[in-house]
Amino acid sequence: MVWMEEIKSLSEGKGGAPVNDSRTSTDAGRSLAEQELVSSLSWLIALRWFAGVGVLLGTWLASGILNLRIPAVPLYVLGLGVLAYNALFWWLLRRLGAETTTSNATYQWFARFQIGVDWLAMILLVYLTGGIESPTLVFFLFHIIIASMLLPHDRAFLYVTLAPIMVGGVALLEYLGLLPHVYIFEPARYDDPVYIASVLIFFTAATYTMAYLSMTISRRLRRREDELAALYGIVQATTSTLDLPEALNRLAEATTSALRCKASAIRLLNKTGSHLIMEGSYGLSERYRDKAPIEVARARLDQEALSGKTVLVPDTAHDDRLRYPDKVGAEGIRTILSAPIIGKTGPIGVLRAYGGATHHFTEDDAAFLGAIAAQGAVAIENAQAYQMLEDLDESKSQFVRIVTHELRSPVQVVISLLNVLDRGYVGDLNEKQADLVGRARRRIEFLQTLIDDLLDLAAGKADVLATTERGLVSLSEVLGEVQSRYEARAQEKGLALQAEYPDENLTVWGDRAELDRMLNNLVSNAVKYTARGEVRLSLERNLGSARIVVSDSGIGIPDDALPDLFQEFFRAKNARQVKESGTGLGLSIVKDLVERYGGEIEVDSVVDRGTTFTLTLPLAESCS
Amino acid sequence: MAKILMIDDDPDVTLAVQIPLESVGYEFYSAGNSAEGFERLKEVNPDLIILDVMMETATEGFHTSLILRDPAPDSEYAAYRDVPILMLTSVHTTTPLRFAPDEDYLPVDAFLEKSAGPDEILAKVEELLK
């Protein structure tokens, strides 16, 4: 029963990628586990015909040929009875199969009922052929195998326990004289050729039946294993790429090889759901691939499939559901199997397998194609989602490019022109003119900073790994450059700008410009928001990370501003009161960058006392 | 005094460069696109070319520089191959277009951001004409 559980867990989504409920149904709303049970039940019914006929033949052989003293009439009745109730079961199974609402529980109940009736017939057979002496006792083994195949573990053991109890019960009743014993053999039996022959016959029959049962079971196991392996291959093939056409072509190829057929094709519904468009295929000619999209309203076969059924066209030459049987025939397609591809919100397309010989596909193939389609749906939806993200990303990059040129250029031109005025190239400005030009210039320079910051942020978020030059970057060097950049400014304000560097060279894998930006924004803030005192920088190793501390004796950050500190455009009230301008993007850029480097940033601040930013970045050595 | 040809489709940018350059005595000529630039190149025979990166297309300036520096002996502009080129860019560092002068890839002598001040432009021009 292992394979049944595997398939069950697979269809329930435990085994592989998440599969939602609507996808477990493949054929007329039946799960794989149910289909397995149904096929086991029909197998059991097929076996029972032989069992019934076997009882009749055996009785005739034993009483007519071997002249055993067996109660022939009750045994004939038993044999006919087995055939009769088997006919009833056969009819019942067909009726259950026709009803789409039949639940798994109903099939389970049906299986248990059949086994119960079988065991009653079996114990009757044992009793009628000598009770504890009966050579048919060994036949109980077949029933035990069948019970353990069809029933859940605990139930199977219950039935197995029942067997010795029933046999023992019959023996006890006979022993106590409550049930008349059926004599078949005289006491001395080793020299009784009839006894020997009958035991041998039953033993041989038992061995052959046993062999048949175990071969059937292992064959079915092997087939399930093959299917699982193929399904796993399909999962691998389709989920290893996020490129939709590629995923679809791989799915088609994997389907073709799993079903050992001629070709496969995947058609997906267009946005309005009116047409099915061939999006991926394998083994089809270019001419066939380039056929016009299928209009769903006119395609009966696809309508059936899209309604959730796996549809089989056993012979394409004789099926009025096909609109262009001649074209299909010209392609060498003799049989078609179609399964719906059902996404999260309903059918999204149809998976078709094409066979080169009529009646190529079996019932099992139909169930299997359904399972492939369910798996394919996951891969297709993943790829579609990814494609949507990529499109979004592309439009974002597009936006960044537009902003770069359309927004940044005019601002730069204005700055250049104001600079020409300001520097007196067209004559000296009087005080008022100079003041106005100065104001305009400061405003436009702020605007330029804002645009640059926005671009940094957008670019950073849009393409995480798109930076051109990544390599080992020395943090001491970067921090040193930043420090020297702000030395003049600090001196102007009368601040002490001090730094401590480690003896060792701490390196980070990344982009020098990004790391510069990260540290620059922190140091720039520290210098900007500190009126007197000092700004201290330090770099040191902390296990596999570098710890960079930027602390100042500046205005500090109010407690209520701390939670929003890294929000885009956020500026604390006291920061806005400081004369110098700021866009409110600097710290969000820092945070964004730090996170991309797998690091952390912490802030510690007391108003009017100062602020300390502590940055932790994984070192290159620990990344490798 | 040296002759400078500026190829740029933005008259405002041209003006912002023209005023400081003329104020110190350079002869200044301008062209609004590459085609006009190539024409004027032959008329003016400049000592320095100032080139805009983005004109009608995002990289028109790059193509212009490649044509000007074409190493083929029969190049139409072989005579001007040694004229220094100063490229004006507004290409921000985070955009995919991220270049620095590269002998093999981009045969220009210097880059300057469009927002550079007039003093910076003058200094760069002087350096290139040395």
| Distance from first to last alpha carbon of chain A | 46 Å
Average pLDDT for all residues of chain A: 82
The largest interface is: A-B, 27 and 26 residues
SS elements, strand count of chain B: 5
Structural class of chain B: alpha/beta
Q: Please count the helical segments of chain B.
A: 4
Radius of gyration computed on alpha carbons of chain A: 41 Å
Number of domains of chain B: 1
Strand order in the sheet with the most strands of chain A = 3-2-1-6-5-4
- Helix % of chain A is 55-70%
Helix content of chain B: 25-40%
Major β-sheet of chain B, in short?
A: 5 strands, parallel
Tally of individual helices of chain A: 19
| Rg for CA atoms of chain B | 14 Å
Quick one: overall form of chain A?
elongated
Q: Within the largest sheet of chain B, what's the order of strands?
A: 2-1-3-4-5
Would you report the number of β strands of chain A?
Answer: 13
Report on the architecture of this protein.
The complex is a heterodimer of chains A (624) and B (130). Chain A has 624 residues and is of the alpha+beta class. Chain A has helices at 2-11, 21-24, 32-65, 72-98, 104-128, 140-150, 153-175, 193-239, 244-258, 286-289, 300-306, 325-330, 363-422, 431-462, 475-493, 512-528, 573-577, 586-596, 620-623; strands at 263-269, 275-282, 294-295, 311-313, 335-343, 346-355, 471-474, 496-500, 507-510, 534-542, 545-552, 600-606, 610-618. In chain A, strands 3-2-1-6-5-4 form a 6-stranded antiparallel sheet, with helices on both faces. In chain A, strands 8-10-11-13-12 form a 5-stranded mixed sheet. The longest helix of chain A is centred in the middle third of the chain and has 60 residues, at 363-422. Mean pLDDT of chain A is 82; it is low at 1-29 and 462-467. With 130 residues, chain B is α/β, with parallel strands linked by helices. In chain B, helix 1 packs across helix 4 (118-129). Chain B starts with a strand and ends with a helix. The chains are: A alpha+beta (624), B alpha/beta (130).
